[in-house]
UniProtKB/TrEMBL annotation:
CDD domains: PMM_PGM. This is Phosphomannomutase. Pfam families: PGM_PMM_I, PGM_PMM_II, PGM_PMM_III, PGM_PMM_IV. InterPro entries: A-D-PHexomutase_a/b/a-I, A-D-PHexomutase_a/b/a-I/II/III, A-D-PHexomutase_a/b/a-II, A-D-PHexomutase_a/b/a-III, A-D-PHexomutase_C, A-D-PHexomutase_C_sf, Alpha-D-phosphohexomutase_SF. It comes from Umezawaea tangerina. Residues 371-445 form the Alpha-D-phosphohexomutase C-terminal domain.
Length: 450
């Protein structure tokens, strides 16, 4: 019996092609998924990686062998697959390894209506079945396979949610990182009063220009320079499967995902007064403040899309945002779509005459450290040391929703979380200004690394 514990993760499937993932493994994963969700059909999309067409076809073979039909949408961004799952009301499989290097591939699975499939919602069963091997279903007619192009429908759906027809003319540099944004952006922005200056739109799963991971500042350098060079109003960077977007202002400066979360939340609350907005505990405290100031109800969650999506469903939230630039919309089946978030930002920019830096400045109330990682031998021991040190100080409060969050009486705070996969502690600090952030960061790190 094969062991798939190394590739079937908490929320998706990821591994090195040829070593951990091959057509035989993926065929069994497809068959196991078909058993989990039943008929009548599964919708499948894939990114631009060299291995994606072969692996997605093998998955489709496994689905068909269980008597379940396949609708293939071909090349797609992850949020385009979620659109297909939601619109067609069918379970789906997206072949992508997002921002991981070229040798990787993976599968993101969802039930009908883009509802996520994780370890607790069926993924563990898929893994166990695929480890044993899944025989073809007996006495059933193999499923059919049809192809369907949903790109234009996807673009039209998004543009029904955000009206940019009245925008002032804008020039926007888009860095697709040789990922799926190079496929979806031209269709979404076709006919809008927005001049797109494309960077790295050529689909290439070998990522010849830079990693398709805009969370790493080094991958934004080209975009920042181009925005300034061409005098653009904004820049947008997408990750490999184009479900996350990062925004650059006209000065070439990054706009924090927390500020984008607050901006989009305000726009969504204008349409749905009093609505609930989800934010994870590492977003700026400006987010819940601004949501409350605009009549909304902020709800704080653990880090991770499964927690956000679960809370979206439980609370009926209208919107959710994470510090990692994932943005979730009730009108998008509670799924994350970087494209819709980008459209909101550009609509807000185009509705007024000021620059993006001025527009987003009102949402940037505090300074933040970004994530600082420390390699430690004993994560629990170091967290306990922090708790002991800060617990002795007056006015300090703790919560342990996700790792350890420490609130100081001057309004600053930090969160220390253990990595699930590496001997790392991840630190995020927020304070009134950069000097206060640096002082608090260094104080915490002296204990963590001491």
């Amino acid at each position: 019996m094969r062991d798939l514990s190394g590739v079937v993760k908490a929320y998706d499937v990821r591994g090195v092609v040829g070593e951990q993932l091959d057509a035989a493994v993926v065929r069994d994963l497809g068959a196991a998924f078909a058993r989990l969700v039943g008929g009548p059909a599964v919708v499948i999309g894939h990114d631009m990686r060299d291995s994606s067409p072969e692996l997605s076809a093998a998955f489709a073979d496994g689905v068909n062998a269980q008597g379940v039909d396949v609708i293939s949408i071909g090349l797609a961004s992850t949020d385009m697959l979620y659109f297909a799952s939601g619109k067609l009301d069918l379970p789906g499989a997206m072949f992508t390894a997002s921002h991981n290097p070229a040798k990787y591939n993976g599968i993101k699975l969802c039930r009908a209506g883009a509802s996520p499939v994780g370890q607790d919602t069926g993924l563990s069963q898929v893994r166990e079945d695929a480890e044993r091997g899944v025989p073809d279903a007996e006495g059933v007619t193999p499923g059919t396979r049809t192809e369907r192009d949903l790109l234009a429908d996807y673009a039209a759906y998004l543009l029904d949610l955000v009206d940019l027809s009245g925008s002032r003319p804008l020039k926007v540099v888009v860095d697709a990182g040789n990922g799926m944004g190079g496929y979806t952006v031209p269709e979404v922005f076709k006919g809008l009063p927005i001049e797109i200056v494309p960077m790295y739109f050529e689909l290439d799963g070998n990522f010849p220009n830079h990693e398709a991971n805009p969370l790493d500042p080094k991958n934004l350098v080209d975009l920042q320079a181009k925005v300034v060079e061409v005098g653009a109003d904004a820049g947008v960077a997408f990750d490999g499967d184009a479900d996350r977007c990062f925004v650059i202002d006209e000065r070439g400066e990054p706009v924090s995902p927390s500020a984008i979360t607050a901006l989009v939340a305000v726009r969504e609350l204008a349409k749905d007064p009093g609505g609930t907005v989800i934010h994870n505990l590492i977003t700026s405290k400006a987010v819940p403040e601004i949501v409350a100031e605009h009549g909304g109800k902020p709800v704080r969650t653990r880090v991770g899309h499964s927690f956000i999506k679960a809370e979206m469903a439980t609370t009926g939230a209208i919107f959710g945002g994470e510090h990692s630039a994932h943005y979730y919309f009730r009108q998008f089946w509670n799924a994350d779509t970087g494209m819709l978030a980008a459209l909101h930002v550009l609509a807000a920019l185009g509705e007024q005459d000021g620059p993006l830096s001025e527009l987003t400045n009102v949402y940037e109330r505090y300074s933040a450290s970004g994530e600082v990682n420390s390699t430690v031998a004993d994560q629990a021991d170091r967290i306990a040391a922090i708790k002991a040190a800060y617990g002795a100080r007056p006015g300090v409060t703790f919560d342990e929703l996700d790792g350890l969050t420490v609130d100081l009486p001057d309004g600053s705070w930090f969160n220390l979380r253990a990595s699930n996969t590496e001997p790392l502690l991840r630190l995020n600090v927020e304070a009134a200004d950069s000097d206060a952030v640096a002082a608090l960061r260094d104080d915490v790190l002296a204990i963590v690394r001491g």
